[in-house]
Design goal:
Chain lengths: 590, 590
């Protein structure tokens, strides 16, 4: 969606809005960590995110990769930066084509400043001379497809002392077809407000978003303001002087200063704020909290999972529950799908999932971190204890879960820990929800004035002996359905027919029932390959003949993965009754 | 579905089952009344119904019409009788082809008795000589497509005194491919049970359903038993003798006798009973009640409306709410659809409804009955009072509703009457339901262990002045959505987008959410033509320039039809608050 559309909506709803800028990390690990950060920061409700362009290095490819992933995997409306003076025309064409193919509809068109800290940059012969040429070119080539942003310089461009001319350059960019303006960083609010008035006075009537860079460290702040020739009011320098060696104090000051600046601008009628995050999370979050900004409900949780914004997935509004903790893998394994299920999984043709091998399928953390977390388990009981510790938040990750348990699982946390310690190794779960308001802080999603529901769900590995006991228990329970499968693919189930089971759904004014999460056999069979393979990956951390490898490989080879749905969503705890009896416990060690 | 499948299911569930036989009425009105009766008797839960064949007259066309309508409009599993000796081969071919096209999968193959009471019948040269030839022919031509029933004669065939040979004839029919047997009527249970034992003894192992004909009148009973040479035990004749002139007493005796006979057979292990209803309802209902037979839940209400069993509608499980009181019209106006929505109306292409003119669109009752019911209204207030009386069950029908209010509307009956008397002329409604068990006697539908929901719904005609007040009220209500339209098609709505609104849905174990009833604009626009035209039909009952015609025509010309959904299904009565204030009342008369 175009950023201008989102801005219009926010203004119509009379609320403030904000956006985050990231830069492409230099290492693969950095990129993975940025994704995590972006996913977490999604909850802060930015209208969009920017990713900067680094034409000089290989990082422009990384820009494209980060943009595509943000848009398709994390469902963040993404704006890709694009510079022109340092880019050959063909590279610009490729970048625009790829962006469009990925469903990206927003470009920040820049002239091409030297990369921060690098003064010696190469001007490109076949590129454009000015940002306005790039804007014009994009409009010519792509008509109205892209929403185009341009940069504004409240203090004038560093390379041009003539501020009047600078203003005319901006006007030319707008006249060439720009849709909105993001400003260079500044620390003098009055200066910005004056400049904004001048912009309006000469007829610039598109949205102008002030760029806010929270001070993260004294050294960084000095370097940046020197580089950009940013004017820093004396009182800020005075405030910083006594604390300049205390990084924590500087950060805190940076947060307070940004809150103060934004509040002043808010009082002057400014509604949108663009944050230069420097790929950091904390300051931006604290500033938003300080401003009392909360994510608009519809933005934060349109569905219980973050919908991809990739172009081919527009209609997608149902997913199997299995990949809840591995969204990226799900997106990648369904990348080749032409058509995504809309509302009902049953309407989609039986989906073919991509092979797990093709996607760098692996443990998320480096081997040494994994070993530190999981140590060298000697018995099955050691494994059980790791799972139980994860449930109690004493362990940050397991091969199946990169991050701690979701808050929604708080209500079942201790019960989960209990069954894990008995050898029912849970890798996914959700509690029952019987018509919570769609604005509920934990369970809510979708538009306001709706009601959301969940069937209780548990997915766990279980030994073959314990499986028989579980199935016997389940068979006397009128509301429970299950699928169980081992590594070899032997499937056991008590469901009849191939109908998918909706386990999360919502009822909203004027709509059909939305049922975004389901359990069904075809996708479960695709998921089980991945779920079992993670045991193998875990075993590979150890010497082949070691006791740890043997214990894990035995589970990998012989245990079953089972998922259980309690179809009576009005009974919160019934699903755990199948574990109540001691007879279902597997032997503690073998 | 094949009758034998249904019998297998009933036996697997260890329950008794029953079926009803009807004959094609001689007049168009008779046919319409039979449809009403069949629809009501659906609730008695027959596994299937039979319609007899009358090859001699034009009524074989009526047989086909009744079979098709029972199958497609009323969703009754239908078995068509077909006779052979009195039918040319081509006519048999046409009948079988048409039956298959209509989704009928059950044929009762008969030799072709003379029509009841007509001894002089014409044997047809190009037909078959015996029922077994017809069975064989159907198998040859259609393979396993049809489930084929044949007749059994516990007392021997009237034309054949050799009972042993009779039994061999039956065996031949079974060997030719018959799937089940329905017997001729009888009144001596022991005789039937002996005969059934003999059947089993010679290797007939398909289901045998005893045919039960409740005694409806002494004269009819005597004629029938004489014609069929049925043995009547002396005690029955003795019992009837003193009451033979008292029709009511004879009917009551007939019910008691049938209950006694069935109970005896039940004790002997018989599970299925075929009732010759003679197109009458009361006796059959009383017998089933006397036997303590209740309709199996899943059979009685698979969906909140009776699904059509027409072949092309197999996937249909969602319908607009508007035709709730005019199912036949809906089925006919959607007859040309290739594809029916399954689960989500939104997935179907925008449907084109057939014109209302093509389907003998009319008031259901003859003009004199209508005038008797509705009299000669002189003012709008007179009309309001008719609507109010209908709500209070003091009037049996209105042009929009052929039969009294549904029991589910009992909880809102007095409120409905109240708003009708104020000029909000309701023609459709449903109360809110917040998760009733799927076995609930009034609201329940679908498989057991499920929960069903409804959003409160009201549809009514309203004067243009009152409409403005209603819309003002609604606009301050966060949960209410509406569509309003006049005869000319001016549409007003507060809904956004074209999304259909699910107003009835159910949550069941191991399934996606089923949402069988929706409100949306395209079908509402098709429905409004029909709803407005009924005012015209009503006006046509009166002289063109009469006061009654003028009052009704003015409503037809100027009023709006509005439907209102309260999307908060957890609040049962909120929908009526929009009528609470006196300001929304239209003038009582103009």
């Amino acid at each position: 969606m175009k950023i201008t559309k989102k801005i219009e909506k926010a203004l119509a709803e009379e609320r403030c809005f904000w956006s985050f800028e990231y830069f492409p990390p230099k290492t693969e690990t950095g990129v993975i960590n940025l994704y995590d950060r972006m996913e977490r920061m999604y909850a802060l409700g930015p209208e969009f995110i920017d990713v900067t362009w680094n034409a000089g290095g290989s990082s422009s490819d990384v820009t494209m990769q980060v943009c595509t992933t943000a848009q398709s995997v994390y469902g963040l409306e993404t704006c890709m930066h694009l510079t022109c003076t340092n880019m050959p025309r063909e590279k610009i064409d490729i970048a625009l084509r790829d962006a469009k193919a990925a469903g990206i509809q927003n470009i920040l068109a820049l002239r091409g400043d030297p990369p921060r800290g690098q003064e010696n940059w190469t001007k490109c012969e076949t590129g454009f001379s000015y940002a306005r040429d790039l804007v014009k070119y994009i409009r010519e080539e792509y008509g109205d497809y892209f929403c185009i942003g341009v940069a504004g310089y409240p203090e004038g461009h560093t390379e041009n002392p003539d501020k009047e001319e600078d203003m005319q350059h901006l006007k030319a960019k707008v006249d060439a077809g720009a849709n909105y303006i993001v400003t260079q960083l500044f620390y003098d609010v009055d200066l910005f407000l004056d400049w904004e008035k001048q912009c309006r006075a000469i007829g610039i009537d598109i949205p102008i978003l002030p760029g806010i860079m929270p001070i993260q460290s004294y050294g960084g702040f000095k370097r940046m303001t020197t580089l950009c020739k940013t004017f820093v009011p004396k009182e800020i320098l005075d405030d910083l002087e006594p604390i300049k060696d205390d990084d924590k104090a500087v950060k805190e000051y940076g947060v307070k200063l940004a809150v103060k600046m934004c509040n002043t601008m808010k009082d002057a009628g400014i509604r949108g704020f663009h944050f230069y995050t420097l790929n950091l999370e904390r300051s931006t979050r604290l500033i938003l909290e300080g401003l009392g900004f909360v994510a608009p409900i519809e933005l934060a949780r349109p569905l219980p999972w973050n919908p991809s914004l990739a172009k081919n997935r527009e209609k997608e509004n149902v997913r199997p529950i299995f990949w809840k903790n591995r969204t990226r893998s799900y997106i990648l394994r369904t990348e080749a799908w032409d058509d995504f299920p809309n509302g009902r999984w049953g309407d989609a043709r039986s989906p073919a999932f991509g092979e797990i091998d093709g996607y760098g399928f692996n443990l998320k953390y480096p081997a040494d971190e994994c070993l530190q977390m999981w140590n060298h388990p000697q018995t099955e009981k050691d494994i059980f204890n790791l799972f139980a510790k994860y449930c109690m938040n004493e362990l940050n990750a397991l091969p199946w879960s990169d991050s701690p348990l979701y808050p929604e699982s708080d209500v079942i946390r201790t019960r989960l820990a209990d069954i894990n310690s008995k050898g029912f190794l849970t890798i996914n779960s959700q509690p029952a929800v019987d018509g919570a308001p769609s604005t509920h802080p934990i369970y809510g999603w979708g538009p306001k004035n709706g009601f959301v529901y969940q069937k209780a769900y548990l997915e766990f590995f279980v030994s073959p002996e314990a499986l028989d006991n579980i199935i016997t228990k389940v068979s006397s329970h009128p509301y429970i359905t299950y699928y169980a499968v081992n590594k070899q693919g032997d499937l056991r189930t008590n469901t009849q027919g191939d109908s998918p089971n909706a386990v999360t759904w919502g009822v909203f004014p004027g709509q059909e029932i939305i049922q975004p999460t389901i359990v069904e056999s075809v996708s479960f069979m695709a998921w089980k390959d991945e779920a079992f393979e993670l045991w193998n990956k875990w075993a590979c951390l150890y010497e082949p003949e070691s006791q740890s490898a043997k214990v894990i490989q035995n589970i990998w080879d012989t245990w079953f993965l089972i998922n259980i749905v309690d179809n009576n969503f009005k009974d919160e705890h019934a699903i755990f009754t199948i574990f109540d009896d001691g007879t279902t416990s597997p032997p503690a060690s073998r």
